[in-house]
């Protein structure tokens, strides 16, 4: 602790020195004499000062510690300082107060008093030009403490400040949704690997409709992972976790990813593999991702085979002949795009990334067709947890009803439960039916709409099943016919050596026999 005596001695010396300078030296020398006198007093001062510049190094790289200190002091400044600089973050939801220049803030650590001050270096006396901005960018924090506490302050205290600052940054940060840019733009120039927009997806686990037990399991899993830094270090495993989300379209896979990111307070990197040129570019992209992020590869089954497969799949339900044509065209297109990411490249990147970087990342693959995926890709260790997103169950419906209509129960719930047990309907369709379409639509109207939709879906499913059964029967009949005529032909062959010739019809398959 600084004694009052020491404080007064220092203050008196500074005041006296300043008065002497002003009295005995002409104004143009004040600056130099002041600097000299400061050095002189520092020599005898019992205090140590450490500065943390905003920019450092040859290329004036932004100093991470400066930002951490600023964030840490924003929590201390509100207690002690009188002048603040205010910054509004998170869409006007929170206000950060940081100390103004030359304002001093005191802090206490294990009973020891410490002073912080934000200063900026005086502009150079000579005229000069800088690539790195003006005075504003030469700011630094000055940390002052008594020399007898050197070890405590330079060690544990500085660590405490930097960690505290990081925590504040995480709390106040506006999270980002990154997407990867094509390696070269249309005029052939290389561009930034990732571009970003604020991540503002409102999905949470509360609004996500799925079986309650399953949802709780996932939340616990994420929590355990996010708090498991020491545990992962102890077992010698990189701090990461892979999730595979699979299920039909519209069952909430993308919604779940947003809920995960919101739950963990992570950024999201949406990696579009089809625009990645090759394995090494993929590696660079992954290495550039930051901690506390969810890396997402949607429709992995399509991406790995590279371009356009999702398009293909959609068209497959249409006319077969047309499909073949489309497939051929898409294949040609994909080849011309020359994207050369391979399965093994992706596996290496994932494994390499986890071992090379700091961890604290989640990687999520989604697919509509889990059976298409290579087992190597989704084995545990890469995709640790496999989550099936399925058709809407009663539990999920109740969540949607609560979310969309603000009701926990209704006499129509029982009927909806029965209908859902007999009909497959994706949560996206259930949600759409539950959504009021006008101000006149109350909860009952929406529930009735849903019942109607469920009945229609059921009828459609029955009709489709009947059509399929009919088609199957016809096919079997045709096959039977073929077998019969083939048998007849064989019989005919046995009785007559050349039956085709006798009919005056030359069978293509018999040409060989003709010769
Ligand atoms: N389980 C769910 N809970 C809440 N809303 C859901 C759920 N599933 C789907 N929805 C609603 O349906 C919409 C589509 O869902 P989403 O995009 O998450 O489906 P998906 O499984 O990712 O589909 P795809 O396989 O086509 O990408 C969402 O915007 C959401 O409103
Ligand atoms: Mg999706």
From TrEMBL:
The protein's name: Uncharacterized protein
Taxonomic source organism: Pistacia atlantica
């Amino acid at each position: 602790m600084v004694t009052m005596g020491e404080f007064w001695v220092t203050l008196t010396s500074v005041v006296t020195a300043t008065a002497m300078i002003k009295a005995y030296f002409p104004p143009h020398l004040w600056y130099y004499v002041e600097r000299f006198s400061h050095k002189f007093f520092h020599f005898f001062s019992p205090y140590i000062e450490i500065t943390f510049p905003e920019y450092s190094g040859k290329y004036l790289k932004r100093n991470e510690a400066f930002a951490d200190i600023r964030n840490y002091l924003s929590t201390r400044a509100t207690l002690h300082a009188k002048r603040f600089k205010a910054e509004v973050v998170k869409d006007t939801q929170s206000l950060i107060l940081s100390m103004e220049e030359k304002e001093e803030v005191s802090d206490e650590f294990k009973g020891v008093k410490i002073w912080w001050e934000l200063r900026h270096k005086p502009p150079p006396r000579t005229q000069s030009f800088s690539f790195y901005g003006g005075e504003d960018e030469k700011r630094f924090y000055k940390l002052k403490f008594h020399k007898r506490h050197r070890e405590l302050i330079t060690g544990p205290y500085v660590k405490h400040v930097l960690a505290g600052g990081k925590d504040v940054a995480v709390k106040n940060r506006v999270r980002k949704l990154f997407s990867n840019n094509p390696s070269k733009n249309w005029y052939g120039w290389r561009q930034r690997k990732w571009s970003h927009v604020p991540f503002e997806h409102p999905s949470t686990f509360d609004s996500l409709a799925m079986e309650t037990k399953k949802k709780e399991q996932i939340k616990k899993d994420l929590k355990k992972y996010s708090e498991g830094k020491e545990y992962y270090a102890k077992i010698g495993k990189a701090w990461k976790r892979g999730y595979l989300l699979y299920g039909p379209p519209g069952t909430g896979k993308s919604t779940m990813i947003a809920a995960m990111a919101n739950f963990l307070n992570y950024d999201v990197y949406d990696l579009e593999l089809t625009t990645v040129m090759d394995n090494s570019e993929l590696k660079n992209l992954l290495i550039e991702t930051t901690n506390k992020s969810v890396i997402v590869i949607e429709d992995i089954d399509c991406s790995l085979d590279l371009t356009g497969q999702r398009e293909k799949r959609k068209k497959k339900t249409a006319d077969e002949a047309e499909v073949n044509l489309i497939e051929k065209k898409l294949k040609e297109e994909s080849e011309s795009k020359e994207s050369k990411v391979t399965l093994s490249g992706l596996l290496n990147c994932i494994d390499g990334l986890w071992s090379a970087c700091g961890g604290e990342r989640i990687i999520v693959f989604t697919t509509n067709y889990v059976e298409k995926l290579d087992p190597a890709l989704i084995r545990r260790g890469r995709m640790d947890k496999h989550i099936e997103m399925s058709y809407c169950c009663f539990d999920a419906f109740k969540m949607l009803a609560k979310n969309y209509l603000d009701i926990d129960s209704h006499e129509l719930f029982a009927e909806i439960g029965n209908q859902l047990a007999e009909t497959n309907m994706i949560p996206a369709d259930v949600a759409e039916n539950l959504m009021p379409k006008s101000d006149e639509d109350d909860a009952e109207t929406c529930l009735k709409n849903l019942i109607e939709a469920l009945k229609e879906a059921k009828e459609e499913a029955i009709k489709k099943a009947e059509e399929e059964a009919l088609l199957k029967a016809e096919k079997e009949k045709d096959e039977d016919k073929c077998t019969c005529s083939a048998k007849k032909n064989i019989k005919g062959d046995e009785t007559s050596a050349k039956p085709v010739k006798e009919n005056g019809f030359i069978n293509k398959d018999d040409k060989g026999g003709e010769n």
